[in-house]
């Protein structure tokens, strides 16, 4: 995030939102999500930011330290990669605050509420419970395990209000990546069509058909993938198959 406004000492705390993960079955901790590596912190009490890399007062203009948040909940998926199990924290930032193009960085933070995904992470039905584990997840009644806890019990456990709310990731990016994946399929079909013009041997056409089928399967997997990293990995595999097909086509072209 690049700074656009000066450091500001705020008289009243600023309300913000951020993605986080809740980890640990026995002793759950909040781990903030984001581009930069962050340490877990105790969400039950107000916290003061510390720069563990440089040791200066946080937040600093020349660093990325401090508690990050955005003021508009709808912009959150645009600035932080989203995963289905992530929680939206509603926070207040106080004392020294730096405002950026994409959000805020504050010196003091108080967690007000936790918003878990409204859909079960296993079957996508409406969630009714939380499933503890390495990462806490929203689950429906049919997918609950023996140690699942209700929303009310989670509120008592975490010491802040826990709710289930919709927090869909940025859809435009997913749509574009899906279109990109099927565009690769179209390019593969063009390569295969061009290969038929030079009367290649049957073994060559069988190989091209296999690569085309692989690209089509990768495109379908891209459309179904939930995580951006998964879609990116599938696109790389599609690029490799297209490159191999292009090299084969060049090799048989007179």
Give the secondary structure arrangement, pairings included.
Layout: E1 3-9, E2 14-23, E3 29-32, E4 47-48, E5 67-69, H1 76-79, E6 87-100, E7 103-117, E8 129-131, E9 137-139, E10 149-150, H2 151-158, E11 161-165, H3 171-196, H4 202-224, H5 228-252
Parallel strand pairs: 7-11
Antiparallel strand pairs: 1-6, 2-3, 2-6, 4-7, 5-7, 6-7, 8-9, 8-10
Explain this structure:
The protein has 5 helices and 11 strands. It has helices at 76-79, 151-158, 171-196, 202-224, 228-252, and strands spanning 3-9, 14-23, 29-32, 47-48, 67-69, 87-100, 103-117, 129-131, 137-139, 149-150, 161-165. By secondary structure, it is an alpha+beta fold. Helices cover 34% and strands 27% of the residues. Helix 4 (202-224) packs antiparallel against helix 5. It has 2 domains: 3-165, no CATH class; 171-252. Mean pLDDT is 83; it is low at 1-6. The N and C termini lie far apart (52 Å).
